[in-house]
Amino acid sequence: MNQDRIILWYRNDLRVHDHEPLNKAIKTKAQIIPIYCFDPRQFGQTNFGFPKTGAFRAKFLIESIADLRNTLQKLGSNLIIRQQKPEIAIPQLAQELKVKSVFFNQEVTAEEIQVEKALHRALKQIGVKFQSFWGHTLYHPDDLPFEIKQLPEVFTSFRKEIEKIYYKS
To answer: What pTM was estimated for this model as a whole?
Structure first.
C-alpha cells in the first residue's frame, strides 16, 4: 500500500489536543510523521548577549517534548527529534520518506517567520506542499469584528464586541 505522508512540524505548540495541523492531517488519511527540531539558533545569544533559551526554559522544553513523544507513542505514533535547523532537517526527511506536505502552526515573531520562509523555499524546490495554520489566539485575527489596528485597549470592550457576534441570544 502506497500511502501519502504528511510531516507535522511541532514548534511551540507541543500538544495533540486542540491542534489544528494534527486534526487536518488526520482528516487526510495520510501517514502522519511528527517532527520537532531543536534549532541551534534558539540556543544562541540575543544581540544584547543574553541567552535566547535559559536553563529553566530548556528544561521545560525538554520535558514538554518528552511528554509529547510519550503521548504520541500512546496513540501509536512517535516524534522524530532533530538537532538541526528546520529548513535543513525537514526537507531532508521529506525527500527520504517521499512526503507530499508539511503541516504546522504559524508563528508570529520575526525570527520564526524567517525560518518559515526559508523552509517554504526549500520545500518548494523539492515539490513538497507547505500548509500553515493559525493556532496562537482564541479567535483568528480574520474572524474579529474589527481590524487589528482598532483592537480595543480594554478587555471589556473587546469582550462585548466578540459577544455581539459569537454569543447572540
So the answer is: 0.84
